[in-house]
Design brief:
The complex is a heterodimer of chains A (about 300) and B (about 350). With about 300 residues, chain A is mainly α. In chain A, about 75% of the residues lie in helices and about 0% in strands. Chain B is an alpha/beta fold and about 350 residues long. Chain B is built from 13 helices and twelve strands. Chain B is globular and about 70 Å long. The chains are: A mainly alpha (about 300), B alpha/beta (about 350). Chains A and B meet through helix 10 and helix 11 of A and helix 2, strand 6 and helix 3 of B.
Chain lengths: ~300, ~350
């Protein structure tokens, strides 16, 4: 009877519980470590492996070399150090992948929740989604880049301008799947009795969405997000390949991949390194998403 | 039934809840599902009104429209002096604490991602300005009241049994000291052994807190246990509204009679002589109810007038209201003859 008041364990913080469950997921920890290594490689690598300034004549003598002590990953057809280029490229690719994913998920979730929750918005928003889905992606991106590249470049400088434009363009053209998935989930969730209970309590719509709907659509959003990172990195490389992304001398993993493609039979490592980096990023992000999804679900947590 | 002179806590008049039906390629409005069609009743302070009927007769819709979880098509719902059906958004929000709901499925009515104390505290964060510590104390109080161990406060709904989950739902409904609680089949999803616990808990809470219940259920024996008065619904309309003992001893409306004859009799000797009234046919579609009495398609005592005219719910005996032409004709004759009349008809219906 009276022991009620004695032993009430203090509430474990939500974050702590999530982390404890996350640690148990082997794949997620592996993914986190790999992603950590990749990020360290691209962020701190350039400090440890400073770029060598070679003259053009010197560079031409060392072109197309295989791995050596001076060039651990070899050199490309213009005699540039592949390791330096991989590091510089990774910084851009990772940034593009994550920022574009965040934009796409944010827009997609917002549209999906609005369409699912407010019946009046459902028609217009889903028709807008259909419209975006039916647009041919590449021509749309081409037009966007054509129209806005110079304007944005004049405001933010050529590199940051290109980055902003590409990230925005990719984000704005890849939110539709997330929106559809989220809308479907929300339609099902809002008929659940706990949402009705919240309404009978008198909770306003925005709080019902934030407290009851959003936490319960995390799983599909997580899946869409992890796939989105991979897609964004690939789309960026396609754009760069078409000459509409970053300037040609500006390396990204996707660009390195396409540059190496012509020499693939002679120097396969030039395709392998950027390909490996992209795959590892995608794979680790996928596992992290998997682990996060499990850790955020109290039904799985604590098993 | 203390002072019937005082205004009842809940007064429902002519409540209608139609759900529009859209068909065709243009989604044109072609008809209505009349889930609740002109329902009127009153619940007095401290009373329990049982609402029974078969699946799909509109019981839950009445409960939800009563709290304006649905926007009623027509009618007045006066709770504690204010008409809920026409209140503005903000006024309704401020009114919410006086009326709460306990849901049918305790699994579905609790957010799986919120801890128990967060669930119970939700109404408090919504309507009060308590500090976190005060709120936690109130949550512990409520958990004690419904018989949940305080140590469960940080657990999640999936870690509880059905009965415990229903207790959480009840604690949440109690958090704001409501006057009226609509219990929407609170025991339907529970084991029989747990049902009794939950119903007894509801009764205890009624005694200590002076609550008023609208108890929606299809379990007739449970309603007999908890309710003071019982309303029987059929196809969106109340067919009989009587004090519990009168109804169970001598149901007046043919449908109420048939419904109550389905209650199992624990005494085997009496069970042998029990007459089951088996209704023929199916429930008509609420989108297209009969022109006359809603029950005329299945009624064993149907006669010509039933097919053309809807009977109104009228008082036929003190405290007993019935919607049936059989009783309108003999009214205002004494109730006992009405009863024997009904019995004769019953025999007739069975031998048919």
């Amino acid at each position: 009877m009276t022991d009620n008041s004695i032993a009430i364990p203090p509430a474990q913080s939500q974050l702590g519980a999530v982390w404890n469950q996350f640690r148990v997921h082997r794949g997620a920890v592996f993914g986190l470590i790999v992603l950590g290594i990749l990020v360290t490689f691209v962020v701190f690598g350039p400090f440890l492996w400073p770029e060598e300034k070679l003259k053009v004549s010197e560079a031409m003598k060392v072109k197309n070399q295989g791995p050596s002590l001076m060039f651990p990953l070899g050199t490309d057809q213009l005699g540039r150090d592949m390791l330096t280029r991989m590091m510089a490229a990774g910084k851009v690719s990772l940034a593009v992948g994550f920022v574009a994913m965040i934009i796409a998920i944010f827009v997609g979730t917002t549209v999906g929740v609005m369409a699912g929750y407010f019946k009046r918005l459902d028609g217009p928003l889903m028709r807008l989604t259909d419209l975006f889905l039916s647009l041919p992606l590449i021509p749309l991106l081409l037009v966007m880049v054509m129209l806005f590249r110079d304007k944005i470049a004049s405001i933010m400088g050529p590199e940051l301008g290109a980055f902003t434009l590409i990230v925005f363009a990719i984000g704005i053209t890849s939110w539709m799947q997330a929106a559809r998935i989220v809308r479907g989930e929300v339609l099902a969730l809002k008929e659940r009795e706990y949402v009705l209970a919240a309404r009978s309590i008198g909770a306003p719509s925005r709080r019902i969405i934030l407290r009851h709907i959003l936490p319960n659509v995390v799983s599909p959003v997580m899946v869409a997000a992890t796939l989105g990172v991979a897609e964004a990195i690939i789309t960026e490389s396609v754009l760069s390949f078409l000459g509409l992304g970053f300037p040609p001398d500006f390396p990204t993993w996707g660009r390195l991949l396409f540059d190496g493609l012509q020499y693939m039979q002679l120097y396969p490592e030039r395709v392998i390194w950027p390909g490996l980096a992209i795959s590892l990023t995608v794979l680790s992000v996928n596992y992290i998403g998997d682990g996060l999804r499990d850790a955020l679900d109290p039904r799985i947590r604590g098993r | 039934m203390r002072d019937t002179q005082a205004a009842p806590l809940v007064q429902v008049e002519g409540l209608k809840m139609y759900f529009p039906v859209h068909t065709g390629i243009l989604r044109r409005h072609t008809g209505n599902v009349k889930a609740v069609d002109d329902v009127s009743f009153a619940i007095h302070q401290g009373e329990t009104l049982g609402l029974v009927g078969e699946s799909g007769c509109g019981k839950s819709t009445v409960g939800r429209a009563l709290l304006r979880l649905y926007e009623p098509t027509a009618g007045r719902v006066v709770i504690d002096g204010e008409d809920i059906a026409t209140l503005s958004h903000e006024a309704l929000r401020r009114k919410r604490p006086t009326m709460q709901m306990v849901f049918q499925d305790p699994q579905a009515s609790l957010n799986p991602r919120m801890s128990l104390s967060a669930i119970i505290a939700e109404p408090l964060t919504e309507h009060t300005k308590l500090t976190a510590a005060q709120r936690q104390n109130r949550v512990y109080e409520l958990m004690d009241q419904v018989g949940l161990n305080r140590r469960f406060a940080n657990r999640f709904p999936h870690e509880f049994s059905g009965g415990q989950r229903q207790r959480i739902g009840i604690a949440r409904a109690l958090a704001l000291n409501p006057k009226l609680i609509v219990c929407d089949e609170p025991i339907a999803a529970l084991d029989v052994s747990i049902q009794a616990q939950v119903v007894n808990l509801l009764e205890d809470l009624q005694d200590t807190l002076g609550l008023t219940y609208l108890f929606i259920s299809h379990d007739l024996s449970m309603v007999r246990h908890i309710a003071d008065r019982v309303a029987v619904m059929y196809l969106g309309r109340i067919v009989e509204l009587s004090p519990r003992d009168d109804l169970y001893a001598r149901p007046l409306h043919p449908y109420a009679e048939a419904l109550l004859s389905a209650v199992n009799e624990p005494d085997p000797d009496r069970a042998k002589t029990r007459k089951r009234i088996l209704l023929k046919g199916d429930l008509p579609s609420p989108a297209n109810p009969p022109v006359g009495c809603n029950f005329c398609t299945r009624c064993p005592k149907v006669f010509a007038r039933c097919l053309t005219e809807k009977p109104a719910l009228v008082q036929v005996e003190p405290g007993r209201q019935v919607a049936c032409h059989l009783f309108e004709t003999i009214h205002p004759a004494t109730g006992s003859t009405g009863g024997s009349e009904a019995k004769e008809h019953l025999q007739h219906g069975v031998t048919q």
